[in-house]
Specification:
Length: 277
């Protein structure tokens, strides 16, 4: 190629520039192929390390983008373009893009952290970012939740990361609590024994930690008992509902009254206001 260029009526400087441009193009083509290979190898390595698919795909694209940016700088240097102004221009452009996409970059950063540290997984029932529901999907920008009334909420990851995250079934079990009032004339010991029998009769209520019933307070209308029991996360609402229904039926059968909460009656004195049509 050098001999071919030497036969052309070109100056040595022009020939040198053309050679450098040719080498730059060759470097760019080979570099793009190598960058894709390196990024794909890194992605396969992350898959073998059980890295989340979403995160591994993002990191693969990030590695590829960084390599391409470095490759472009090297190719331009090979072509004779000064690197200092180029680096400054890239830095200024990156700063401008970062300021313009500040909110999106915050969501992206929190998305990476949520995927890496996994405070919740798909299928968990959580409360985060002011929303409560079942996690359907976690992306780099948003987390999708299905709320109890079947509405779908798309919550930005930055809002989730900046707030408390409550995971209701991460440990696999949940505790429910209920309160009942027993009349002062009723046998309190018998009432508590009936409740313990209902605990034992329901296989969904776990024996460890053990369920219990305690006297919480003495109100104006009766003795307040508090019931606490652990179940598997999927059984919590069903077990609580069935327990309260069985408790009411058993108490009625045994002649134990469930006292209503105290109510206040406020009497207001004064002349009614006149209404004009």
């Amino acid at each position: 190629m050098h001999d071919l260029l030497a036969r052309l009526p070109l100056s040595e400087a022009t020939i040198a520039v053309l050679i450098n441009i040719g080498l730059a193009v060759l470097l760019l083509l080979v570099g793009i192929w190598l960058a894709a290979r390196v990024a794909n190898i890194a992605q396969r390595a992350m898959h073998r390390a059980n890295v989340d698919v979403t995160l591994s795909g993002f990191l693969r694209n990030l590695i590829y983008g960084v390599l391409i940016a470095l490759l472009i700088v090297m190719a331009l240097q090979q072509a004779g373009v000064p690197s200092a102004p180029l680096v400054a221009a890239l830095g200024a452009g990156g700063l401008a893009i970062g300021l313009a996409l500040q909110g999106s970059l915050s969501n992206l950063a929190w998305g990476v952290l949520l995927i890496v540290f996994r405070p919740f997984r798909v299928g968990d029932y959580i409360q985060a970012g002011g929303v409560e529901g079942t996690v359907e999907a976690v992306s780099l920008m948003h987390t999708m939740l299905t709320m109890p009334d079947n509405r779908e909420a798309v919550v930005p990851n930055a809002k989730i990361g900046s707030d408390a995250i409550i995971n209701f079934n991460r440990r696999g079990t949940r505790r429910f609590e209920a309160k009942v009032r027993v009349g002062y004339k009723d046998d309190l010991g018998k009432a508590m024994e009936l409740i313990r029998g209902l605990f034992d009769a329901d296989a969904r209520i776990l024996k460890d930690p053990a369920p219990g019933v305690w006297t919480e307070s003495l109100s104006d209308s009766g003795v307040v008992l508090v019931l606490r029991a652990y179940t598997k996360s999927a059984d919590t609402w069903g077990a609580q509902t069935d327990l309260l229904r069985a408790l009411k039926e058993r108490f009625e059968a045994q002649g134990i009254s469930l006292s209503p909460p105290p109510q206040s009656l406020v009497m207001l004195q004064g002349r009614p206001s006149e209404q004009t049509s």
